[in-house]
Amino acid sequence: MQIERLQGSIVAIVTPFKDNGEIDFQAFDDLVEFQISNGTDGIVVCGTTGETPTLSHDEDAQLIERCVKKVNGRVPVIAGTGSNSTTDCIKYSQKALDLGADALLVVSPYYNKPSRRGICKHYSQLAKNVKAPIILYNVPGRTGSTIEPSIALELAAHHENIIGIKEAGGDIGVFVELLANRPENFKVFSGDDFLSFSANCLGADGCISVVANVIPKEFHQLMKSSIEGDLTTARQLFYKYQNLMKLMFLESNPLPVKTALALMGKVSEVFRAPLCEMEDENREQLKIELKKLKLL
């Protein structure tokens, strides 16, 4: 699988649960097929959208293995293997590769808030110990630490298996700095659905997306047209779905996206504590938009 060529719409897939709280593997298989049959270019499993903070290590492994088997080489499978312990991150990453993942999405160490030097050391040790494509993941709003563009570019220059970054800091200026200075073949993916169109116009490679769970075909078309310079098509799609993109973050991800999928009949509306159902008024707002877009 040529992960280095990956671009477009990469879904950060949800983890469906049964009413008893166990993983619904049949629903998961169906979601994977829904994505691939609608043009999704890659799948991230065990990411934030997959509720991984509430999953056990065994469940992470089961989901990665299941995803690899179901995908069967049709698109790249990228496993989320981040940790605030470098030793654990290396261990989780090697396990994901043993299970067949094509690449790794590794979030910046969270909670312990390492310095610039600490972040560089973390990823350098990972890159040296795990011989696989690594995508950095910058999401300061969740981690409390930041992979500044200069850090990402330094790591890319020193480690050929650090092949890209998912940038979810919410600042279009960061994309400008990354894209203007990136080395050849270093991928820049938006981690923000709403900014992805603008980022692609600047030269980004697509989006690791939440809303693609709900509109895989349409989001794939948005990414493809914006990357290829068909701005008329891209604008039409962006304006049509921009409110849905905003609503995906009306409450903490993945509550809105999973609620939308439940309303569409694709998963049960079940979350693991401390996550819980959306507030009634927010759920109704989401339902109205789904109806407006003829998704229900």
TrEMBL record:
<feature type="binding site">
    <location>
        <position position="49"/>
    </location>
    <ligand>
        <name>pyruvate</name>
    </ligand>
</feature>
<dbReference type="GO" id="GO:0008840">
    <property type="term" value="F:4-hydroxy-tetrahydrodipicolinate synthase activity"/>
</dbReference>
<keyword id="KW-0457">Lysine biosynthesis</keyword>
<protein>
    <recommendedName>
        <fullName>4-hydroxy-tetrahydrodipicolinate synthase</fullName>
        <ecNumber>4.3.3.7</ecNumber>
    </recommendedName>
</protein>
<feature type="binding site">
    <location>
        <position position="208"/>
    </location>
    <ligand>
        <name>pyruvate</name>
    </ligand>
</feature>
<comment type="pathway">
    <text>Amino-acid biosynthesis; L-lysine biosynthesis via DAP pathway; (S)-tetrahydrodipicolinate from L-aspartate: step 3/4.</text>
</comment>
<feature type="active site" description="Proton donor/acceptor">
    <location>
        <position position="137"/>
    </location>
</feature>
<dbReference type="GO" id="GO:0009089">
    <property type="term" value="P:lysine biosynthetic process via diaminopimelate"/>
</dbReference>
<dbReference type="InterPro" id="IPR005263">
    <property type="entry name" value="DapA"/>
</dbReference>
<dbReference type="InterPro" id="IPR020625">
    <property type="entry name" value="Schiff_base-form_aldolases_AS"/>
</dbReference>
<dbReference type="InterPro" id="IPR002220">
    <property type="entry name" value="DapA-like"/>
</dbReference>
<keyword id="KW-0704">Schiff base</keyword>
<feature type="active site" description="Schiff-base intermediate with substrate">
    <location>
        <position position="166"/>
    </location>
</feature>
<keyword id="KW-0456">Lyase</keyword>
<dbReference type="InterPro" id="IPR013785">
    <property type="entry name" value="Aldolase_TIM"/>
</dbReference>
<keyword id="KW-0220">Diaminopimelate biosynthesis</keyword>
<feature type="site" description="Part of a proton relay during catalysis">
    <location>
        <position position="111"/>
    </location>
</feature>
<feature type="site" description="Part of a proton relay during catalysis">
    <location>
        <position position="48"/>
    </location>
</feature>
<comment type="similarity">
    <text>Belongs to the DapA family.</text>
</comment>
<keyword id="KW-0028">Amino-acid biosynthesis</keyword>
<comment type="function">
    <text>Catalyzes the condensation of (S)-aspartate-beta-semialdehyde [(S)-ASA] and pyruvate to 4-hydroxy-tetrahydrodipicolinate (HTPA).</text>
</comment>
<dbReference type="GO" id="GO:0005829">
    <property type="term" value="C:cytosol"/>
</dbReference>
<dbReference type="Pfam" id="PF00701">
    <property type="entry name" value="DHDPS"/>
</dbReference>
<keyword id="KW-0963">Cytoplasm</keyword>
<comment type="subunit">
    <text>Homotetramer; dimer of dimers.</text>
</comment>
<dbReference type="GO" id="GO:0019877">
    <property type="term" value="P:diaminopimelate biosynthetic process"/>
</dbReference>
